[in-house]
Amino acid sequence: MKIRPPVLHVHDEKQISMKKLAQIVLVFVILSTSACSPDASRSVNENKAANEIPKTTVAMKTDDTAKKIVKTDEEWKKILTPEQYRILRQKGTEYAFSGQYWNSEEKGIYRCAGCNNILFVSEQKFESGCGWPSFSMPFDSTTCDYHEDNTYGMTRTEVTCKACGGHLGHVFNDGPPPTGQRYCINSGSLKFEAVK
Length: 196
Ligand SMILES: [Zn+2]
Fold this sequence. Notes:
Blueprint: H1 10-15, H2 18-33, H3 38-46, H4 55-58, H5 73-79, H6 82-88, E1 108-112, E2 118-121, E3 125-126, E4 134-135, E5 144-149, E6 156-161, E7 167-172, E8 182-185, E9 190-194
The protein binds zinc ion.
């Protein structure tokens, strides 16, 4: 990557004093030695362990304006099925090839079964063969939160619904291009809405 110096038009040159010009040159020297040294940042990304938080999610900023839905366990139990409650609120996992959506190819939207937040769309779904619905990316940057999960002797990245905090599944860096990500999500945390 190369930052080009600004092209100064003839009339600009007359107006800008030598001092200002020197300042502009200085700014570009600083930019070209700091911001424009992608090699350093690239090597950091390349050295990331496969199960670290994926690159695109690192860039996501926490959206403080996102509404947090807070309910007591008793309130969740009233609106969720026992299986939804076990997955969303107790970080449960459904058996592979057992969920409602693992092999669904219908076109539509996947919402959070707890709070209706749009999580994924069918265009991002792919057949991974793992037995759980797999998506290459979330709906947008306000969809999910990410947490390091060291349970069961593994280091994984847990994915939760940003709006209600419900457990959805995990994200891995072994998905297809262009994202290279596989959001491995429990059907029980999802609610499908067909789009015609
Ligand atoms: Zn939710």
